[in-house]
Please model this.
Amino acid sequence: MTPNMTGSQQKSSLQQQIDENLKRVYDEALKERIPDHFLQLLAQLREKETGQ
Amino acid sequence: MTGASDIRDELPAHLPALRAFAISLTRNMATADDLVQDTIVKAWSNIDKFTPGTDLRAWLFTILRNTFFSDRRKRKREVADPDGIHAQGLFEKPHHDGRLAFADFSRAFDELSPEHREVLILVGANGYSCEEAAEMMGVAVGTVKSRTSRARARLARLLGLAEGEDILGQEAAGTLSVMSRSGSQAA
Model:
């Protein structure tokens, strides 16, 4: 975000690499296929409400 | 934002992120799915508590993490000891090119406490500010900052990187600092 690099470059490099790996952990989880039952659950909740 | 449409129509779009957050917290697919399901139901029935125009995803994340930690408090029996046996160095040093092996990183991440995983996923992976994370976690901004740095330090330790050790930053310097340990003091 800030182009102004004040802190130690080395520390931010370690941090940067940890963050890259964290993003990868998260991205791998993001790639998991969403089970249909979540969408079914949403449809059921909607149905229950409009059905009243 | 006019209120003409139901914000809940946007829920499906947030499912992948919600589930990824749940997986990151629990590191267990079945538990993650239960958590997402509970979150969906709570979000649906409490949608009147959502402030229109604010970040829906952050709101959903808040519900999810609150559900997770309160369930966990209820269960309490299998409390992981964050400083326990797993915390001792079990991982090999990074490769000579200085890059972390992702498999090692993943294992180290699994060893963290859920509190540490949470803050790292919110701040490190999702790029939320400490202020935003603090709001989601219901803690002070300073707590987020200190917890984030402690979590990073623990990760580094699990990966066999002492804090301040420069292996990841500059290959040459890293190699030197490793080598200098076996010899005398290097400059």
